[in-house]
Write a structure and sequence with these properties.
Layout (H helix, E strand, L loop, with lengths): L3 E7 L4 H13 L2 E4 L12 E9 L7 H9 L1 H4 L3 E8 L6 H11 L4 E8 L1 E2 L6 H14 L6 E2 L3 H15 L2 H4 L11 E4 L5 E3 L17 E3 L1
Parallel strand pairs: 1-2, 1-3, 3-4, 4-5
Antiparallel strand pairs: 6-7, 8-9, 8-10
The chain binds flavin mononucleotide.
Length: 214
Amino acid sequence: MMKKSIVTYETFHGSAKKVAEVIANQLGCKCINVDTPFEAEDLREINNVILVFNFRGPYTAQLTKLYLSRVKEQLKTKNVILVGEGLFSEKEFPIVAQEIYDNNPSRTFNKFFVNGQLRVDTLFPEERALLAKFSELTGMKITDMGELDLNKAEQVASEIEALVNSEEFNAPVEEVPESDTIWVCSVCGYEHRGDNPPEKCPLCGVPASKFNKK
Ligand SMILES: Cc1cc2nc3c(=O)[nH]c(=O)nc-3n(C[C@H](O)[C@H](O)[C@H](O)COP(=O)(O)O)c2cc1C
């Protein structure tokens, strides 16, 4: 049985949204803005998480990373696919992808790139300022650039469809048996279930030595 997928997108001028919709159409799944209140529990029935974001220099994938930090635990048993959309970042994409994966290890991890576009007259004032700085540093003139490559988006959508149907993506998830031991933080009362106490209390920050078995 094919497991369920979800596509999220982070967009400022709509290109990443278009790419996300092409992919979601192909998979016949939900497509939501990464900004939408969406909690970890919403991922319970989902096997494949496809994240589409655009490149914005130092702000690349900012909202996507925020979202990932909320669902970090759930991702360990999910297949994650990153789709980057930008003007010229295909070469740097692996670095961004590696950083995202290192912070949020998942069951499987794949990435795709789609060429984007920039239309100067649609930019927000703060984007103009950022690009002016970039222009000053690199000597590159900022004009209308690129063409959103929807053919590539369709090709990527087909490749993603093949992946989500693959054996690798549908192998049964190994259940980790839940431990019976509960550790209580002697300082703040935080409770942690597991064979060992956490390295540091996530509430008050004291070390593992301050935890006692319940
Ligand atoms: C402020 C700003 C910074 C950008 N930085 C990059 C970049 O570092 N690398 C890149 O390939 N494209 C960059 N772009 C181009 C965008 O990725 C491209 O315009 C994309 O199609 C925008 O997607 P959207 O329509 O979903 O907002 C930048 C665009 C803006 C406005």
